[in-house]
Amino acid sequence: MTLIKSISGIRGTIGGRPGDNLTPIDAVKFAAAYGIWLREYSQKEQLKVVIGRDARLSGEMIQNLVVSTLVGLGMDVIDLGLSTTPTVEIAVPLEKADGGIILTASHNPKQWNALKLLNEKGEFLDAKQGQKILEIAEMEDFDFAEVDDLGTITKNDAYIDIHIDEVLNLSLVEADTIRNAKFKVVVDGVNSTGGIAIPKLLEALGVEVIKLYCDPTGYFPHNPEPLKEHLTDICQLVVQEKADFGIVVDPDVDRLAFISDEGEMFGEEYTLVACADYVLGRTKGNTVSNLSSSRALRDVTQKHGGVYEAAAVGEVNVVIKMKENKAIIGGEGNGGIIYPESHYGRDSLVGTALFLMLMAERGGTVTELRASYPSYFMSKKKIELTPDLDVDGILKAMEEKYKHEDISTIDGVKIDFPENWVHLRKSNTEPIIRIYTEAKSQSEADMLAERIISEIKEVAGI
C-alpha cells in the first residue's frame, strides 16, 4: 500500500493506515492544505473551487470528504460529479473559479485514487506551489470557518456537454467534414467517464459508435493504462465490426490511444504526432513534448517548418515550455494532447476531434496513415524502488558513465545516441525508476533497455 506526496498532488491506495495510504484522514488533510494555500494565493474573501471525479470505486467517498472539507473552510464548491480531467480544467475559468480539484488516479488500477490540483486558469500547479501545499499539510495549521461562514455546494452535471460544445467550436474542427466521412468507431471507455464523454462527442460529429466498456461503474475490465497488452478486446472488436478505427482512453480521459482498422495499436506516441501533423498543416507554428516522447514529433514539426523543443516530464513542465516556445500544439508521448486554442491541459476530446479531421481530410485508412510517419519503436520499462536504493546516486553514476554522449539532466538523465536514446527518471506518481528507450526497430529498443537495466542493477548492487 502506498501514499505518494508530490508537487503534482497526493496519490495513494485506498485503505490502511493514515500517512501510509490514501485514507479519509489523508484526503481531508490535503484538501484542507490546498484550501489554506488557495486562500493565501488568491487573497480573496470568498473562494470558489470546481470539483470533479472519474468513476473509480472510491471516487464518491473521496469527493464527499474533499467537498465537505472545502465547505468547512468557508469555500463555495461547484460539484461536477462524474467528469473528466480536461472537463474540470475548462470548467474552472468558465465558472470564474479560484481553483479546482480532480479526483482521479489517472491510469492507475482501481485501488488507487488521487487529488490533482488546479489554479484559477484550470492548469496544474507549479513545483513551488505544490511544495507549499505539502508544507501546509505537514504543519496541519488549519483554520476552519464558523457555522455562519460555511461554504455552499452547487451541483452542475452539464459540463461534459459544455466541454463537447467547446470542442465543436474550435477553429480547426469542422463537424460537417467529419460527418460527411461517415466514420465507424469502437470506443473503450474502461468503464469510467470516457465512456460518457467520448461517445457523446462522436455522436455530435455524426460518427457511428460501437461502445465497449462504456458503463461508468468503476469496475475496470482490464488494466486501465492504455497499452497494447491490455487492449486485446478492442483490437478484436475493431476488426470484427469492420470499423475505421478504435479509440481508447484512460479513466480520467487525458490519455488517448487509437487502434488501426487492422486491429493494431497506432501507438500512443503517434497520437500527438498525428494531431500535430493536422494542426501544423493548417497553421504554421512550433511544438513541444517531453524528454520521454518520440523523435517522430520533431521530424513532423520540422517537415512543416516549425521548431520542436523538449521539456521535462510532467504536464506542467510541458505547458511552461509551450508558453515559452509559443507552441500551437504539444503534449506527452503517452497520448496526451495539449491544444492551447482550447486550454493548456491534456484533452482526449480535443485529440479525438483533431484526429477525425486529419482522417477526413487525408482519406485512406489508419494503417496507411501510420505507415506515412517516421518509424520509431519504443521500449518502456521500470524498476521497482526499495527504500534502501539511492536513486540520485544511480542516475549520477549513469550520467558519468555516458558523459561523452549528448546528455540532458533537466529531468533525470537522457542520453541521446546518434541512432537511439534512453531516458532514466524517477516517477512522480509511482515508486519506480522509468527506463524509456527509442530506436529504429523494436528489437534494438528492447536490447538497449535491457542493457541499461543491467547497468543500473550493477551500479545499485541489485
TrEMBL record:
One of its GO terms (biological process) is carbohydrate metabolic process. Residues 8-142, 164-262, 270-374 form the Alpha-D-phosphohexomutase alpha/beta/alpha domain. Residues 395-453 form the Alpha-D-phosphohexomutase C-terminal domain. Its EC number is 5.4.2.10. The keyword GTP-binding does not apply. The keyword Magnesium applies. It is an enzyme of class 5 (isomerase). Its cofactor is Mg(2+). GO terms for molecular function: magnesium ion binding; phosphoglucosamine mutase activity; phosphomannomutase activity. GO terms for cellular component: cytosol. Keywords: Isomerase, Magnesium, Metal-binding, Phosphoprotein. InterPro entries: A-D-PHexomutase_a/b/a-I, A-D-PHexomutase_a/b/a-I/II/III, A-D-PHexomutase_a/b/a-II, A-D-PHexomutase_a/b/a-III, A-D-PHexomutase_C, A-D-PHexomutase_C_sf, A-D-PHexomutase_CS, Alpha-D-phosphohexomutase_SF. Gene3D superfamilies: Alpha-D-Glucose-1,6-Bisphosphate, subunit A, domain 3, Alpha-D-phosphohexomutase, C-terminal domain. PROSITE patterns: PGM_PMM (PS00710). Belongs to the phosphohexose mutase family. This is Phosphoglucosamine mutase.
